[in-house]
Amino acid sequence: MQPAVQPEFIPQVHSKPSLADLLTIENSVSIFYSYARETDLSRLLSEEANNGQGWTLFAPTNKAVMTLPRKPHQGSERTNEVEMTQEEFDRTAKTNVERWVSAHIIAEYPLTFDTEDHSTLLEGSNISFKRDPNSDAGSPEWKQFTLNNGARIVSKKEGINGDLYIIDGSILID
């Protein structure tokens, strides 16, 4: 009996890394990426853009996440966690993380910086931009704006499926 012939392995070659690849190598946003990997949204960050549909991701720095008064898995509201079962706590924490991560992703690529609200993947959550009057007009456009909550964009990376903006704050959700 002949052994089965294995199909030839052909590696995929891309001119740019995916958003997931960028998050993997960008140490300054490792906390955000550890939360994002816990969600189904992590698939979006790995997949190639379909029909030009890409993503714009605003990833808070580790420092920004550490300074949050309540961590993403805790949510924005204080609940009586003593009365929760472990299963309820785990389910609530997962929902909170998914909401927080989705508030940092916009289904637009490339993104235009303007004063319009841009809807995030979290229903009812928007990101808008305000031109910083003290910004250097000769700097890249993205450096001339702050987010609606005052967060500044400190870095931009381009991926095959979208843009990663590293921000010095977090998108706050209700």
TrEMBL record:
For the keyword Signal, the answer is yes
User: One Pfam family for this entry, by name?
Assistant: Fasciclin
* PROSITE patterns given in the database record: FAS1
Q: Which UniProt keywords apply?
A: Signal
SUPFAM superfamilies, per database record: FAS1 domain
Q: Which InterPro entries match?
A: FAS1_dom_sf, FAS1_domain, Mug57-like
Domain FAS1 intervals: 16-171
Ranges for region Disordered: 69-90
Give yes or no: UniProt keyword Signal: yes
List the protein's name.
FAS1 domain-containing protein
